[in-house]
Amino acid sequence: MLELKNIEKSFGNTKILDGISVQIQDSEIVSILGSSGSGKITLLNLILGLYNPEAGSILFNDKDITKKPMQERGFNIVFQDYALFPNLTAYKNIVYGLKNFPDRSTKEEVDSLIELLDLKEQLNKKIDMLSGGQKQRVALARTMVMKPKILLLDEPLSALDGVIKESIKEKIVTIAKDFKLTTIIVTHDPEEALTISDKVLILNKGKIEQFDKPSEILNNPKSEFVENFILNQLKIKKDNIYKLFNRGQNEK
Question: Which of 40, 102, 167, 196 has a Cα-to-Cα distance from 246 of 20 to 30 A?
Fold first, then answer.
C-alpha cells in the first residue's frame, strides 16, 4: 500500500500541494485528475521521488520513503513524451534498462510482454518510424521489463485519439490487472479517469476535492467543484457520462 500523509509542497511563495492525505491499495488503478495548476504533476513527481515534500510523509508497505532517493524506490514512470531513444530500435529501447539489471526479466518474460503489447512486428524499427500508439506501447514495455513496484503514467493518452486511444487504454488496464500492479495515472481528462480507474483523486488548487470510485463520483459528487469540473470538461449530459463509465467497466 502507498500512503501519503499530510503532504505539502511549495515552489517559492506558491503552495502547490496542501495537506494531501490518501491511501492507494495494492493493485489499484488510480487516476489523479485535475486542471492545469491543480498540483497533479507535482504529486506524481513526489511519489516518484524527484523531490521531497516540505511537510508530511510518504509510506510504501508501511516503510517511510519520504526522503528515499528515486532510484531506490523501485517506481517507474512513462513520461508524456515517451522519452525513447530515437537512435535505437524499438527492441533495444525495450531492453535498454536490462543492461544494468540483466536478472530483472528473463528473455521469455520480455517476449511475453512484447506479445501482450502487440509489438512483434515493430521490434526492428527505429522510433521515428513508429506511430504514437506504437511509441506508447514501446514506452510501456520498456518500463514493465524493469518490474516496477508502482507504475506511474503521465498523461498516457493525451497524444492519442480514436481507436488507438481505446487500444492503449485497454493495454494499460490489462497490464495493471495481469501483473497485479499498482498504477497511478495523471490526467486532465475526466473521461479517461472515469473509464480506466478503480478510484479517482480529484485535485483543485493543491487540495483533494474527492477520492472515490468512479461510480461514487458520478452518483455522489462531494462538492460543487467536482460536479461542475466533470460536466464542464466533458460538455455532455450526465447520463452520457454514465455510458462512458459503463463502457470503461466493461473493458476491465
Answer: 40
